[in-house]
Amino acid sequence: MSEPVATEPPEELAARAEALRELVRYHSERYFVDDAPEIPDGDFDALVAELEAIESSHPDLADPTSPTRRVGGSVAATFSEVRHRSPMMSLDKTTSYEELLAWGRRIERYVGAAVGFTCEPKIDGLAMSLLYEDGRLARAATRGDGTVGEDVTANVATVAAVPRVLAAPAPRVVEVRGEMYMSVPAFEALNRRQSAAGARSFVNPRNAAAGSLRQKDPGVTASRQLDFWAYQVGEVVGGPSFERHGQTLEWLRRLGFPVNPHTELVGTLEEVDAYCRRWEADRHRLDYEIDGVVVKLDDLAQRAELGSTSRAPRWAIAYKFPPEERTTLLRDIMVSVGRTGKATPFAVLEPVSVGGARISMATLHNEDQVLAKDVRPGDTVVVRRAGDVIPEVRGPVLALRPAGLAPWSFPERCPSCGERLVRLEGESDTFCVNLDCPGQRVQRIAHFASRPAMDIEHLGERSVAQFVRAGLLRDVADIYALTPDGVAGLEGWGGTSVANLMAAVDASRARPLANLLVGLSIRHLGATGSAALAAAFGHLDRLLGATAEEIGAVEGVGTVIADSVVGFFSLQRNRDVVERLRLAGVNFEGAGEPQLPQVLSGKSVVVTGTLEGWSREEAEAAIIARGGRSPGSVSKRTAVVVAGSEPGAAKLARAAELGVPVVGEAAFAALLDTGELPAG
Ligand code: IVH
Questions:
Q1: Within this chain, do residues 303 and 195 fall inside the same structural domain, yes or no?
Q2: Average pLDDT, stretch 600-626?
Q3: How far apart are the first and last CA of the chain?
Q4: Lesser CB count within 10 Å: N end or C end of the chain?
Q5: From ligand 1's centre to the CA of 121, what distance in Å?
Q6: E strands within 539-667?
């Protein structure tokens, strides 16, 4: 962020600094005064960091009225003003471990004596000041600009986590500071209620907490499940005095305040570093959002010695995690049709780096989701990518919406075949039900040929698309009608590759029934269900003759799969395909090929991240084929977690917590071979 500074000519730099000041002032207002930030914190912090870099490397360009010298915004008109007894300061921030450690070393050098650091999660909420007189909540105020905040007592009094009366013995006066926040489950529940009521959803928990705190009607606040962590004692009259921060936290606990249990006192900078890295990896284990770690000097006398600048104490620093939310332009909303015919809207984005990955597309799930979020092509949108969760479009930045931007509506016709799309009553998904839809055709046929299904080498999606274009393939049964002459003329197909393909097609006729069932792309029926049905019925003809009740009675197969299977085989077109597969000599029996040794029988193996040699589907199929299970989450029944690149932090953390071994790809190969982890 600070690199370009030195090279730009001075006039341009001065203009940039002025523009940045204006932007930072504007966005502080939106954040602090309106509770309606237009850009995510990550974007805001980047603006401030750039401005700070210019001002510190070019003192001549610094400006005494710059927002870098102040704490925040000012006060909105709705609530009455409260002058804080002592200023509510901000924290210096860093996003680099080098800077964090440099800060720590400066402190150590300055203080000289033994240094203790308190490390605390940095809660992503709103700073609050709670004043208690004679043990009763007398006044609750927001931070405002740090000097003057807003009186939100009536609303805060409804928050269960905030004691209205302190546990005895309470001092005459005590001001408690801490963070008001909304947990992720409460945030999600609120958004579900908002969308059920046709109201706009909140972009993130902090936004929701701010909106909920500043309601005119305390009843609304009460319904929003706000929460609170206390982390600082302000003014105290007639109370105990303390020497260490840890003691003040202990006292706050005794007075009845929630104090974050993950707070830790450490003695070395290595431990500070380790704490920050641990929570950076584990942040999603918590059911509330944290955006960093606050590191504070524990000794209160040492704090007093260090003092503060005009905006922040010198004895504390916030290490901020890389942002998981950024804004970007929503170029378009398109719809893709998958092999089951499901038409899924997705966002086409101006590429943006977020959560450690470059994002240019994000699913929007279904029509209702697009409507609830009210995102429109041309909007600036907030994009979020957290841990191993797929990227998500959270919502539009309304203030940046160009005038006259039309709402998006779901296309009436399939983008692939032009047939009318169908959304059934009570369903959230929209489907193209045309079995001849070319959009589904390529993917369906490629899926039939893929490793978890009929495993036909040399018949990947590219070749399938080529054969479909050439008129050689219309459905999966056509694979067995491919001839060397038909393929040989096509681009890229020589004598050897044609012969290899023919041999692979031929070999696939012998695959077991479970693989054939996977290959038919029956909605809801995956590898596990297919294996269960193949084992229970033994032959495709017995499955064809079964009722939904009989199918649903198979262990591991519910009514949803049963109805889908019966629905699939009741279509004449699908029956025809089955008959042509039979004529082509495709195996319909359960055990068409010797079963793999069931080395993973009864074992549960969780896969996370990207493996080089297996797609996620293939890895799971390989586990299931050996008798194992491959659920999506880690539990105490998990035998081992296989982690590829960019594994899910939450899964790794859970595994560590439960003592489940985590292994890499090489060990996974050994596991598939022998059922055992290699020694060492
Ligand atoms: S201490 C003078 N501790 O971060 C120090 N702040 O960027 C006062 N925050 O305004 C703050 N968790 O809203 C402190 N454990 C924590 C915190 C925390 C979140 C917020 C707080 C503060 C902001 C500074």
A1: yes
A2: 85
A3: 43
A4: C
A5: 9
A6: 604-608, 638-643, 662-663
What range does the domain containing 397 cover? Answer: 325-423
Q: Please list every protein residue whose CB sits less than 6 Å from any atom of ligand 1.
A: 89-91, 120, 122-123, 127, 179, 231-232, 294, 313, 316, 318
Distance 142 CA to ligand 1 centre (A): 13
Is the pLDDT assigned to residue 70 strictly greater than 60? no
* Of the listed ranges 105-109, 243-247, 416-420, 509-513, the one predicted with least confidence: 416-420
571 and 638 together in one domain: no
Residues 200 and 92 in one domain: yes
**CATH number of the domain where residue 49 is located:** 1.10.287.610
Cα gap 157→180, rounded to integer Å: 12
The runs of H, that is alpha helices, within 472-597 are 484-488, 495-508, 513-519, 527-537, 540-544, 548-552, 559-570, 572-583
Mean pLDDT calculated for residue range 512-541:
91
81-122 pLDDT, tens digit each: 999 999 999 999 999 999 999 999 999 999 988 889 999 999
Residue 76 has pLDDT above 60, yes or no: no
425: exposed, middle or buried (Cβ count in 10 Å: 0-12, 13-18, 19+): exposed
Residues 63 and 212 in one domain: no
**Residues contacting 133, CB < 8 A, separation 6+:** 172, 173
Q: Answer with the one of 534, 551, 583 that is the final residue of a domain.
A: 583
Instruction: Return mean pLDDT, the chain.
Output: 89
Ligand 1 mean position, distance from CA 180 (Å)? 11
Residues 278 and 332 in one domain: no
Residue 431 located in a structural domain? no
What pTM did the predictor assign?
Answer: 0.61
Q: What does the pLDDT read at residue 614?
A: 83
320 is catalytic: no
Mutate to test the pocket of ligand 1, among 263, 294, 297, 315 (most ligand atoms within 8 A of CB): 294
Same domain, yes or no, for 303 and 178?
Answer: yes
